[in-house]
Structure formats: C-alpha cells, structure tokens
Amino acid sequence: MQLQPVLLLLSLPGCVSIQGPESVRGLEGGSVTVQCHYTPGWETYKKWWCRGAYWKSCDILVQTEGSEQEVKRDHVSIRDNQRQHLLTVTMKEVRQSDTDTYWCGISKPGPDLGAPIKVTIDPGGAASLQSRTTTSGRAGTSSGSYIRCV
C-alpha cells in the first residue's frame, strides 16, 4: 500500500499543518462560516483569523485565547473545538467589500502556521437571503493548506 505524499508528510515527527477550504462564497447581508482542521498537538495554542493577501502581514480580525471559548469581535466570531481539532470562524452581515483572501492560523514560536481561504461575497436581496444565508467551507470546495515541518 502506498501512502499519499501529504499523508506520509503528516506522519513524520515534527510536521504540522492547518487546512481549510480553498474558497467559500456567501451572499451580501448573510453569514459565512469557515472550518479549518489542524493536526493534533496544537490544541492549546492561540488560533487566529486574518484578512489580507499575504499571511505574514495580514490584519488579525479575531483570535482565540488558547481555549475552546468562543471569541467575538465586531461581526466575526471564532471557536476552537480542541477535541476535533477544528477551528470555526463565522462572519456575519457580510458585504461585497468583505471579498478578499483570509487565513486560518495558529500562533506558535517562530513563524505562525496559516491556510489561505478566498472569500467571495455575491450581491443578494432579501428573497435570496432566505434560501441561502450561510456558506460552509466544507460544501463544494477543495482544500488548501500550508504545511511546515519544524
């Protein structure tokens, strides 16, 4: 049996990753939820959600405190399910101007870990919002990840 290269890489000691959807879409006025998975060992580290094309210089919008407690800031919330290694970010009352590249990330000594997600907000009216207010990062998207071995 041959292992996929990514699975082999993740099984090596010292390799860590965080992975999210490549892109998500939402309707103006609604909400967008993104879920990012991370490898075991990073449960108590702070996780963050930032906006900007380059993760090293992006603007952190919200960040956990290393616990499972939900943190809200403006129209953005973040929650870390440490048992499932799952980071969930929800952006509410989104506007077309929210269309951008965002990052799920883990704060750690040295360079942080991050996974880019392209968020696109489409124009929408009240009628269309009733049928589709949330776009999850899990539906109909491919995954993108940033992997670093330390």
Automatic annotation (TrEMBL):
InterPro entries: CD300_family_receptors (IPR050671), Ig-like_dom (IPR007110), Ig-like_dom_sf (IPR036179), Ig-like_fold (IPR013783), Ig_sub (IPR003599), Ig_V-set (IPR013106)
Residues making up the signal peptide according to the UniProt record: 1-18
Domain Ig-like, residue spans: 13-120
Region (Disordered), start-end ranges: 125-150
Entry's localization field: Membrane
Listed GO CC annotations: membrane
SUPFAM superfamilies per the UniProt record, alphabetical: Immunoglobulin (SSF48726)
Alphabetical keyword list: Disulfide bond, Membrane, Signal, Transmembrane
Biased composition (Low complexity): 131-150
Protein name per UniProt: Ig-like domain-containing protein
UniProt organism field: Canis lupus familiaris (Dog)
Underlying gene: LOC100686711
